[in-house]
Model the fold of this input.
Amino acid sequence: MNGIHGKLLWAVFVVIVLAGCGTVSNERIRKAVKQPAPTVEEPAFIFHRVMAGETMGSIARHYSGKESMWREIAEANPELSPFKLKKDDIVRVPAAIATVNKEQPSTSTAARKPRKPDRKDAATSAPDDEPDDTLETDFEPVFGPK
Done:
């Protein structure tokens, strides 16, 4: 009996092993497992190199449209003094507040001062849209007999 039970036990063992070795095709595995789409993480900060005359307020206005967002920028840059920015300082702007622009401008964000015309130039120059119809003979002499 030992021989028959041993052979039967051996046959059952072989059947179980062979049944477990069945392979599933790669196509079936791909269909069964849903892969999530790859996620691209947005950078947490935009790095802005300070240009002459810029303040955290002007930088905030460029990126968020609101000058009042300078506090968020200041919180992201504890090593910088918000009122003493120097040219070529690197300011980290949180990407979350950058709703208007996401890249540094090519020119400074500093406010432009309106240029005042020179008084001397304004008084002596005649407007360009007025025609000059006067001839030299139309002038009265300033000095001499009348």
Observations:
- The helical segments are 2-20, 26-32, 56-64, 70-76, 119-124.
- The domain at 45-97 is CATH 3.10.350.10 (Membrane-bound Lytic Murein Transglycosylase D; Chain A).
